[in-house]
Design goal:
Helix content: 10-25%
Number of strands: 21
Largest sheet: 5 strands, antiparallel
Number of helices: 6
Strand content: 15-25%
Length: 448
């Protein structure tokens, strides 16, 4: 019977080998789960350290030259590398918060961390190398790993999504009121005028102007009370004054204007003088009479009435009127030449025409303040040269071409003030169904 059956083999000891092999596998998996997971977590904290340090250093852009330990950007990076120190198994930086120095960030040794200026408008911060000691992974011969991280920041143009307007220093703080003038939409926005303490008895309540374009001939009609000084003889009335804000270029006032007809108690009319209609601005009208003490003075500044010569603009009013809103004159070849307002409206609605983009100037600005938009177009009337062989856009020509739409343009002409009609077209109504901007920006669908 035994000839038909093989003897059962002895399997004792196989279980022990399987267990031993499984333990090794379990240790490898544990090392992957514990030590490599720890390393990945530490890597993330080092990256965060680099990110915050780069953002802090980037606040000092643009920069010129090679990094130095005394540079504001390097000092800011040093501060944040210390403040955001991750745990380091080889050092105690995470406890002292002072082990990173500005000198080590510019010594060329990337193990210690480094600040690099990639251009005047871009820099990179490398965080110091951080040691992570392994525990379970030592079973397979891996004792530790060093991790580091980099972060790059730069000043870039937002491209075609930009708004072609700006607010100069002084206009970008405090409560903002847009006015030209307020036309009843805001109160108390009379700017500082000459003779601010005068208190003549005349009281201006309204005015109308028959011509408001530049160099036009027209009449100004004023209504109020005691415009003749409140006396039947009208001897106390002396003149009408046209004032501009004391921050405006001279002249700030035009006086000695003779009325077209003698003033009555509540009405007078005068011819607009050429000195007023020649200057595009908001003018404020006051009447000069005697005050209650019999002294010749202008009507109170708070009662001055405004009218504008030329196209309306939006500008700061009240306490923020140290500056003004302005517009960038960015050329287009799909809009009729010499129509800056339509350029502005289209650039508001759909952004600058490609390939034109804006970029921070990467070099030293010449002494004359002009900088270069890139390759010059000598035949273009929108490029004007200067002694430093630099160029800038000047929208005063009669023709334009795609050569005017220069990528990475960094210097353009500007206008002080923001035309209300162009803003309405660009933001709300658009330029028409068959135009480059059929809808205003606020009515366009959102894009990326």
């Amino acid at each position: 019977m035994s000839g038909f059956f093989n003897r059962r083999r002895d399997a004792r000891g196989a279980i022990a080998m399987i267990v031993a092999m499984s333990c090794t596998l379990f240790f490898v998996l544990a090392a992957l789960g514990v030590d490599l997971g720890n390393a990945m977590g530490r890597k993330k904290t080092v990256q965060t350290q680099a990110d915050f340090s780069a953002l802090a250093a980037g606040a000092s852009l643009p920069v010129i030259g090679n990094p130095a330990a005394s540079d504001a950007a390097v000092l800011a990076a040093t501060d944040y590398l210390n403040k955001d120190q991750p745990i380091d198994d080889a050092k105690t930086c995470d406890q002292s918060k002072t082990c990173v120095t500005a000198a080590q960030l510019v010594n060329g040794n990337f193990v210690d961390g480094e600040v690099q200026y990639l251009s005047s408008t871009m820099l990179r911060v490398t965080a110091p190398q951080t040691r992570i000691n392994f525990s379970l992974a030592q079973v397979i011969g891996a004792k530790s790993v060093d991790v580091n991280a980099q972060a790059t920041v730069g000043i870039f143009s937002p491209g075609t999504g930009i708004m072609p307007v700006y607010a100069v220093s002084g206009c970008d703080w405090g409560t903002q009121v847009l006015t030209d003038p307020s036309n009843g939409q805001a109160a108390g926005n009379v700017p500082p005028l000459e003779f601010p303490t005068d208190n003549g008895v005349a009281n201006l309540t309204s005015l109308s102007v028959t011509a408001v374009s530049v160099n036009a001939t027209g009449f100004l009609s004023i209504s109020g009370t005691k415009l003749d000084g409140g006396q039947p003889s009208r001897a106390q009335f002396s003149r009408v004054g046209f004032f501009r804000s004391t921050s405006s270029p001279a002249p700030t006032s035009v006086v000695n204007i003779v009325p077209t007809s003698p003033p009555t108690d509540n009405f007078l009319q005068i011819t607009l003088p050429p000195a007023v209609t020649a200057i595009e601005d908001v003018w404020w009208v006051r009447v000069r009479t005697q005050n209650n003490q019999g002294v010749d003075q202008w009507s109170p500044m708070a009662q001055a009435l405004p009218f504008r010569v030329g196209a309306a603009v939006l500008e700061c009013a009240g306490s923020s009127n140290d500056g003004n809103f302005g517009s960038l004159l960015l050329p287009r070849i799909d809009i009729a030449n010499n129509n800056n307002n339509l350029w502005l409206a289209a650039n508001m609605a759909v952004g600058p025409q490609l390939p034109l983009t804006l970029h921070t100037y990467d070099g030293t600005v010449p002494a004359n303040g002009q900088c270069s938009p890139g390759p010059g177009n000598s035949s273009s009337p929108y490029i004007e040269g200067n002694a430093d062989n630099q160029t800038r856009y000047s929208p005063s020509g009669s023709a334009s071409s795609v050569a005017d739409l220069v990528d990475r343009t960094n210097c353009v002409d500007t206008d002080t003030g923001l035309p209300a009609n162009a803003t309405t077209l660009g933001m709300i109504t658009g330029l028409g169904a068959n135009s480059v901007a059929p809808l205003g920006r606020l009515r366009n669908k959102a894009t990326t």
